[in-house]
Every structure is written in C-alpha cells, then in structure tokens.
Input
Amino acid sequence: MTGESERSHLTASQRDALDSRDVDQDRTLDAVHQLEAALGAAAPGREPAWRRDVLAALVVLDESTTQEQRNADEPDSLLSDIARTQSRLRNRVRGVRAQYRQLRETIESLRRELTAEESNIDFADVRQRLAWLLTALRHQRARESDLLYEAYYDAFNADVENDTAG
Output
C-alpha cells in the first residue's frame, strides 16, 4: 500500500503511520535475512560460534519486532486507525495484534533458551524451530497486509491495484 495514488486518499496522519509501518517492516525484514543467513551457516564442529551468530541475529530480530509492535500499538498507528474507524474489522485487528504478541513471546523464549544453552546444542532442532518462527512471522505479516488492503477498499471503495494504475 505504498503507491502515491492511494496515499492521496489518506490523511497526513495515515500517511505518516504508513511510512512508519514501512520503516518497521523493512527493519524487521533485514533482521529476518540476518537470521536466515546465520541459520544457514555450517554448525557441526562449530556449535558455539554457530549459536553465537544465531543468537546475535535473533537479538536483532527481537529488537526490531519489539519496535514494530510498539509502533503498531500506538494510538496513531494504522491498526489503531482501522480499529477506531472500521468497527467490522476490529476483531481482525485484535487477532493480528494477538498473533504478533505470541510471535514476540516465542522470539523472547528462544532467545532466553539460546542464551542459557550449555554445550551440546541441537542445531537441527534450533533451525527447525526458528524456521517455524520465520514462517509464522511471514503469515502474520500477510494477515496484516490483507487487513490493511481490505480496510483501504472499505474506506475508499477502490481497489488498491486499480487506484495505483491511474
């Protein structure tokens, strides 16, 4: 939802909220890529270094998602605006926020676990669990994007793709 044409329908506050969301999502996407790279590195025989690199990338993801959640929960965020102005979408906003909180809790839990882990880390298990987390994060983002596009359509009675084509 970042084309100039659809932004013309939005208030200045909504455009600022959209810009903030874009920055948050870019920062989190960079953190996801860092974690994917760390997870893909060789682990056998170098478990402590592998764990250190994965943990460092997970810390970056933790920090970026913390900021993203904090911004999304602000009263002037896009989600708050949707919940306030489009009553039929309020439950979906709550659902997106609840799912995001669960993801944040999982990130924090995995971070604590990797921090406390002694030797003998099961890197295959850690990879699989973090891969699930990354998949769940992508799913949550898709749900949020669908919600934002639906809210846009409802508010302006226009499809974003048609609006940006003109």
